[in-house]
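note to self: dont lose this again. the chain is below, predicted strucutre after it. 215 aa total, dont forget to put it in the shared folder this time
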Amino acid sequence: MNGAREIDLATWSRSGQFNLFRTYDRPHFATTARVDVTALMTKGKPAGVSPYRAFIHAIGTGIHAVPALKMRFTGNSVVEYDGISLSATVPRPGDTFGYCYISYYPDWSRFDESCKAAIDETAKGTDLGANTGQRFDVAYLSCLPWLDFTALDNALPGPEDCIPRFSWGKFMEAADGRWSCAVAVQVHHALVDGLQVGQFFEAAQVCLNRFADDA
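---
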């Protein structure tokens, strides 16, 4: 489990938004935007980089760049975690999958090694591994490599669920040789506004662009 600090609602700049959107029956909103993966596909992948694991790392980097995406609430208590683990869906033989829990590290090499080990272990398992409320220091990730979607909505247990969801689709090559994919981000409006979603996309894109420099 990751460490956390409690947010003082009396001095928190978003107390008004928090109190407002907590009253909504549907307090979540989802945003889908395209991310450029040209450097990853033309430089990183030929050099042996796994696009799947690299994209998980980019999402983790985006999350950790935005304090609001590390916040969770229970009742009227809001905390910001020091770190967020990444819970990704991992395919298994047939039509099933399991939930994998991946620790985030800023360093790509360290993350890649840890991520691969966690994914391999989950792929060989049989337990679903679903988080049934025992952890809040996570974010949910899913990949839909079969679809170049234009929007996406997730199944949610209720209005109190404040764990953000991140989904990405099929990598598409344009006529000019550029690569991109759709990324959907679903968050609880009591904790996150459009500004923070934009900050996430910016940080994730910077992380993906670095493969052009690493090559």
